[in-house]
Amino acid sequence: MENHVVLTACIDELQSLRYTPAGLPALDLRLVHESSQVEAGSPRKVSAAVKAVAFGALAERLARQAPGSIWTFQGFLATPRNSKTVVLHIQDVQQN
């Protein structure tokens, strides 16, 4: 099975940079996506708010970005322990 996500979205919220118990930089974000998609042959406006997390140098890089900036995020989805929500684990970004 494959678990790969590519999403163009703006950074809506950035939490403070934190560190894992192993000392790895980590950053929690909220991303917002809006677009027009075709579903069942008809155009549809869609929007989504997505929780995301980045680690290491990527977390440090994203922590310096302005809310509202638009990026293309690549990564995978996972559900944290004791949670029912899905989180995008960011592995790569490109600014749009």
Automatic annotation (TrEMBL):
Any one GO MF annotation of this record: single-stranded DNA binding
A single Gene Ontology CC term: primosome complex
Keyword set, alphabetical order: DNA replication, DNA-binding, Primosome
UniProt-listed PROSITE patterns: SSB
InterPro entries: NA-bd_OB-fold (IPR012340), Primosome_PriB/ssb (IPR000424), Prisomal_replication_PriB (IPR023646)
Signal peptide: none
Pfam family of the protein (one): SSB_1
Stored Gene3D superfamilies: Nucleic acid-binding proteins
Any single biological process term in GO: DNA replication, synthesis of primer
Superkingdom of the organism of origin: Bacteria
Reported function: Involved in the restart of stalled replication forks, which reloads the replicative helicase on sites other than the origin of replication; the PriA-PriB pathway is the major replication restart pathway. During primosome assembly it facilitates complex formation between PriA and DnaT on DNA; stabilizes PriA on DNA. Stimulates the DNA unwinding activity of PriA helicase.
Family classification: Belongs to the PriB family.
Description of how the protein assembles with itself and partners: Homodimer. Interacts with PriA and DnaT. Component of the replication restart primosome. Primosome assembly occurs via a 'hand-off' mechanism. PriA binds to replication forks, subsequently PriB then DnaT bind; DnaT then displaces ssDNA to generate the helicase loading substrate.
UniProt protein name: Replication restart protein PriB
